[in-house]
């Protein structure tokens, strides 16, 4: 359960379904929390990925600070630059994901990456964990 539409209520997001091959490849099923239960399923269309679905790693992360989870491609076996140098971000419009990606440039150094909002502005900073437990924080830059 995650808040996908930014209303602070936990929604149900179905990312795969045994009886429906389109769920997880062409769409997610979203049951929005209405405060007393859940609305009927709404289809959040997924963008066409540059490779087969099993060849990419994705995440739902609020990259732009609008309180809605965006669809993020964090790695691809067909494009070695996705992951080390940039991510593909498909912004959440409130009822679907944009069908065109924006490339988010990642810092050019090593270390395990995580993203979190370290300030009250809800924008995400990248966290880099280096040897000996030092941590550096940077804001990602948007590129096209």
Figure out the total of helices.
0
Largest sheet: 5 strands, antiparallel
Strand order of the largest sheet: 4-5-6-7-11
Molecular shape: globular
Helix content: under 10%
Low-confidence spans: 128-137
Radius of gyration using CA atoms only: 16 Å
Strand content range: 35-45%
Average per-residue pLDDT, rounded, comes to 79
Helices and strands, in order, run as EEEEEEEEEEE
Secondary structure: number of strands: 11
Structural class: mainly beta
What does this structure look like?
- The structure is a single chain.
- The chain contains no helices and eleven strands.
- The protein has 144 residues and is mainly β.
- The strands form three sheets. Strands 4-5-6-7-11 form a five-stranded antiparallel β-sheet, with no helix packed on it.
- It starts with 11 loop residues before the first strand and ends with a strand.
- Residues 128-137 have low confidence and may be disordered.
In short:
It contains no helices and 11 strands. It has 144 residues and is mainly β.
Keywords:
single chain, five-stranded antiparallel sheet, three-stranded antiparallel sheet, 0% helix, globular
Layout: helices, strands, pairs:
Elements: E1 12-14, E2 27-31, E3 42-45, E4 56-61, E5 70-76, E6 86-90, E7 102-105, E8 112-116, E9 125-129, E10 135-138, E11 141-143
Antiparallel strand pairs: 1-2, 2-3, 4-5, 5-6, 6-7, 7-11, 8-9, 9-10
